Predict the 3D structure of the following.
Amino acid sequence: MSSNDNILAFEYVIGTLRDSARTEFDKRIQQEPDLLQQVNYWEQELLLMQDLSEQRPLAEDIWPQIQKRITKVTRRKSVSWWNPIALVATLLVTVLVAVLFVSSSDFNNEFPVDYVAVLLDEQGEPQLTAITQGDNRKLLLQWEALTLKEQQSLQLWAESRSDGQIRSLAIIQQTDLKSLSLSEANWRLIKDAKKLILSVEESGGSPIDEPSEQIIARGVCVRVSS
Amino acid sequence: MKEFEKLNYLIARCALKDNQAFQELYQLTAPLLNNIVFKLVKNESMCSDVLQDAYVQIWNNADQFTLDKGQAIGWIITIARYRALDRLSKEAKTCELTDSLESRLTSTDNTPEQQLLSQEQQTLFHHCMSQLNDSTRQAIRLAYLQGYSREMLAKMFGTKVNTIKSWLKRGVEQLMSCISSRSAGV
């Protein structure tokens, strides 16, 4: 890193690099990892000048405007489960969620996350996040706003990585269930699972031991820790 | 700050396009960003536009945030600052220089609650800033916190743009050297 580049990185971050010089530098950052690293360095350091306790009341119309803009984009970008790009993106995001969930208060921070699956509906919205931590044979669940009609059950399934078979993991009667205790057999199913699937079944679970056509969410199962 | 501890989780949820998490993230961070951005652009309507751009970018790029990019609040502030700087460049905004230098620095010189990184890092950074001469330190703060361009700084300090460039150059070198030597325990 030349001294001149270091100064440019600094001026880029404090904002005195303007107009065409800034645009040029922006292009260089995309292509030169060392330069990007130096920009990140100054971003981290200079952020310490910021007083995080100072706030300013917001105009009420900002949030609706943001919503309007992201809704348009989201609709355009809506993807199905089977879109391969969406699946790759989901996989990456699942790993991200796993890493970041460790800091969430909803889960026990004492144990590392081992397996995680974020089950998305057809619109790509998350419906259920399932996580295992350590060897406690528990599947921790975080639900979104799912409602269940009377005479219905939800059933959680694991699609095997080894033989492609879909096997039942649990029948769920209420969507505020926080955790599931897993038998040794179900624990093995989780460890071998390629995907988790959530289906709506008649009360008591699928009579044919296969998911119904009402699959409401599914997600790749990712092993996070070794 | 304690209230920002949940941000990692909220960003992860935004990556999954969870709008409820996005709203929570907005409520948690927008008053702070509004303060930071307004100081830079000094115009209500421009500030509102910049905030919209920043949050749309946060929503769209949430899946690109990783912990190696630093703390989540830092990532969010950086996005908002850069959108504000883009806007300043676009508008070729010139700041009104009617206030005294002292009054412009009053609100930014007292920084009792900068809790982004560890106390140790903050102490080190502020120690190194305090080693700079007054003009250089003030120029850096005015640029970073209030969006001053080199030309505006030159006008403010009654000097030439090239002099400002020299101050900044010296400032970078001294800061870098101070932070590195202190970090290495020299």
In short: The mean pLDDT of chain B is 83.
